[in-house]
Amino acid sequence: MKDRFLNTLRELYEGESHRAYRFRYAVLFFDIVTILFVIVTSFTDHGRVVEGIDAVFGVLILADFIARVAIAPNRWRFLIQPVTLADMVSIVSFLAPLAGEGLGFLRVVRTLRFLHTYQLMKRLRSDFPFFRHNQDVFVAGINLVVFIFVMTGLVYATQHGRNEQIDNYADALYFTVTALTTTGFGDITLKGSLGRAISVVVMICGVTLFLRLAQVLFRPLKVRQTCQNCGLSLHDADAVHCKHCGAVIHIETEGQA
Hints:
Layout: H1 2-14, H2 18-41, H3 48-71, H4 75-79, H5 82-95, H6 106-110, H7 116-127, H8 129-133, H9 135-159, H10 169-180, H11 192-218, E1 222-224, E2 234-236
Antiparallel strand pairs: 1-2
Helix pairs in contact: 1-2, 1-3, 3-5, 7-9, 9-10, 9-11
């Protein structure tokens, strides 16, 4: 009975049947709903209704986590993966009561659920040519979005109640975006050495991620053009020959005026 159950789980999580694909996309849809819930509730007060929904999400995430552990070939390696650690922290944050401000710091670890968007991109790349051909843009965009919301959660958790300028999550998001873009209006500043350190991280890392997104959108270093001879897919934008096998490749360009 146990082996049959584990085989069913492996088929659902790793199989190629229509049922397996439907199941995995249902899990991905749940991840999207969870992420949207994290965003929406970040801007609202946490009452009993939100706590009840938290508990439901926490139980479902826990069930998914247990299933993945059960079918993992190497459970110890699985348990130390970043996404797995993020799930473990997310489970605690969803199941813990968040109505009291004393546990408000747990809101920051909820944003780690955004790491699941990387699994979403992996599935979309394998199933849809559009995502596969534009994966650099999507990955750069996801990196930036994940960074913004994780840092927003960190700003809120460390400044709310201590900094009168950070009254709600919107204030924390506003500061993160203005610091990231180096706009620097100066109407909100973070207090203390920790606040200054967070500001430095937001500015340095955020600008780097923002510029990376702009680069892949407007001037990518590499273009995707599969070599018909050896199959190499990434080439320099101005390449004429495949650097792997030397075959002539034909990369479409706009030319020069």
